[in-house]
Amino acid sequence: MRPLDPRLVRSTAAVRVHLAVTVACGFAATALILLQAWLVARAVAGATAGTAAALGGTVAAVGVVALARAALSSGAEAAALRSAARVKSDLRRRLVRHAAASDPAGTDAGEVATLATRGLDALDDYVARYLPQLVLAALVPVAVLVVVFRADWISGFVIAFTLPLIPVFMALVGWHTQDRTRRQWHLLQRLGGHFLDVVEGLPTLAVFRRAKAEAALIRRVTEAHREATMGTLRVAFLSAFVLELLATLAVALVAVEIGLRLLYGRLDLETALLVLVLAPEAYLPLREVGARFHASMEGVTAAERVFAVLERTTARPAPPAPAHPADRPAVRFDGVVLTYPDRAARAVDGVDLELRPGMTTLVTGRSGAGKTSLLALLLRFAEPTAGRVLVTGTDGGEIDLRATDPDAWRRRIAWLPQHPYLFDASVADNIRLGLPDAPDAAVHRAARRAEADAVIAALPDGYATPLGERGHRLSAGQRQRIALARAFLRQEVLDTPLVLLDEPTAHLDPANAAAVRAGVARLLQGRTGLIVAHDAGWADLADEVVHLDAGRRTAGTGAGALHGAGHA
Hints:
Elements: H1 6-11, H2 13-48, H3 56-101, H4 109-121, H5 123-151, H6 153-162, H7 165-200, H8 202-207, H9 211-263, H10 269-291, H11 293-310, E1 331-338, E2 348-355, E3 360-364, H12 371-378, E4 386-392, E5 398-400, H13 406-410, E6 413-416, H14 427-431, H15 440-449, H16 453-457, H17 476-494, E7 498-502, H18 510-524, E8 528-533, E9 544-549, E10 552-557, H19 561-567
Parallel strand pairs: 3-8, 3-9, 6-7, 7-8
Antiparallel strand pairs: 1-2, 1-4, 4-5, 9-10
């Protein structure tokens, strides 16, 4: 088993940074270990020789070095845990993106689900603890041997002879553990996939009265996984015991030969103390590597499986051409009918409507008239029961909206809903929703254009202020301004040609309504807009006003009314 998968280093920047920091911390820790051993030996030898009064500085230095080692260890572990979180996050995002872009028929959903959850969690111990210990295991024993050989060549030979026994036994245990770990992983993957299949097919199993039989099968697979896990842990605990025993016996050999020579006056006390203090430090990193070996096995296995999934060529078939609307598409509803499955009445009943490039259309009507259903059709949240929604294609002709890729089409829309959802995240992250890489400058510009900058400036931490679940820190009007800033950011970053607004100022107080209204006017400039509202109060921003009643278009006024009447 390789202790580090090269693909992790090549493809994940967080691992490269983590390794560099770990090596630097390893050199610093090694130097502090050697310095502390020398200071302790000097202090004890001096005290024994009767010069304790002059040792105040040495004792103080020992304390300083001990504090430095503790601070270095704490800081290195905190940095390692952050690196592990970044590595897991990066691999999860890549895995999910790959699964979303792959052909579902060629994707093992159980394997992907297991890898994205329990599998990648195993990288915590691997990245944060095993890799740093691996660096120390390479640096500390070599440095200790060099110092010990210079101080006492006999003790150096004893340590050099016994030190390789630990990695030899680690390798022997590792070969046995590797097979057990792979079996454990295989059973966990099988359990995850089978459980997912059972949940998806539960209605069918219940109809054919096979639910109890499948539950019994899941219990058997779960029991097999439990036994494999306990067997692996048993080997891991026994291997730790063997390594501890070897290290203890090796240190005992060094102590015996040092004690005998010290007794007969063939070795001075300071050198003996230096060797005795350093000897356990030579074996400790190797023992720690052995103790963390099981975690490394599971983490490396999970990483290998993730890269195996990412390297599969199971791309989703491309949608049939033409699949992309023009840069500034016109949108036309051609006899569109929409009936929801749980309702008898039509939500949209034979609507003909054209949204022309650069023009704004206002759709009015009372609740239930079908206004929001028009937005659902444009957002591809619903498909027409009859009729078509047509958009201008790249060749200038019209294509059915159902022939476009939904995600690509939605990236061309700036949408302001009546009740925007704000997450328990910072203001900046809420504005960046869907555009996580948008720069701070663009976020700030979007907030200013939405007249939300004053609201944000009044928050405790400005753009870094968490908004709480559903944005409970803000009023309804302030939440609407944040959502408007979100639309402005999409417009700037994605150059969205289509703007959809659902009751932008409903239930807002006059001050917030005026601010949102001013921002909406800027958002609509040069774009194709559709505003849905209960009344005609937005008519001054619209080029055409359309009224819906019970899903049907009943009237049209404004600059484009005559053109719209031809469709009615």
